[in-house]
């Protein structure tokens, strides 16, 4: 201040307003994306750069580089621990193909087949297990195969005699 004259200054990240008395935030992202390679996020008094999934911020805090081998996702925080069961790790999504019964970026998330597809027949209850499922037959029914149960009352042999020839029909194979 010099007599009745004064001059205002603003901190970094702010510009002096037209009234020459107040400071207003500068949106650094409006000019050349703030110098960010991927994503610029403005906040009052400054900005941050960040990267798309599959990339991580470089030391200059503006540039982005692809995830190193064996990592994936936001800031490359995901670990492709699926490499013991799958040879491909996608930088954005993680493990490219999980074994049957598993899902997720690291293939360690169990799929609950009982919720997603209910594979058991109407005479069984589905029970989820890690990596697979089991069908538990209702009372009065026995396991025919992995997903089908048959009534125990159907387990008998029918013998028919036609013109002196015996025909034997085993109904235990009928679901």
UniProtKB/TrEMBL annotation:
Stored InterPro entries = cEGF, EGF, EGF-like_Ca-bd_dom, EGF-type_Asp/Asn_hydroxyl_site, EGF_Ca-bd_CS, GAS-SHBG-PROS, NOTCH1_EGF-like
Q: Which molecular function term from Gene Ontology is one that the record holds?
A: calcium ion binding
Q: Where in the cell is it found?
A: Membrane; Secreted
User: Which Pfam families does this UniProt record tie to the protein?
Assistant: cEGF (PF12662), EGF_CA (PF07645), FXa_inhibition (PF14670)
One biological process term in Gene Ontology: endocytosis
Indicate whether Signal appears among the record's keywords.
Answer: yes
Q: Specify the domain of life of the species encoding this protein.
A: Eukaryota
The record's annotation in Gene3D superfamilies points to: Laminin
Give the membrane topology, semicolon-separated if more than one: Single-pass type I membrane protein
Q: What's in the GO CC field?
A: extracellular region; membrane
Specify the EGF-like domain's residue ranges. 110-150
Q: Does the record carry Transmembrane helix as a key word?
A: yes
> Do you know which PROSITE patterns this protein is assigned to?
ASX_HYDROXYL, EGF_2, EGF_3, EGF_CA
Cite the entry's keywords alphabetically.
Disulfide bond, EGF-like domain, Endocytosis, Glycoprotein, Membrane, Receptor, Repeat, Secreted, Signal, Transmembrane, Transmembrane helix
Protein known as? EGF-like domain-containing protein
Organism (species): Ridgeia piscesae
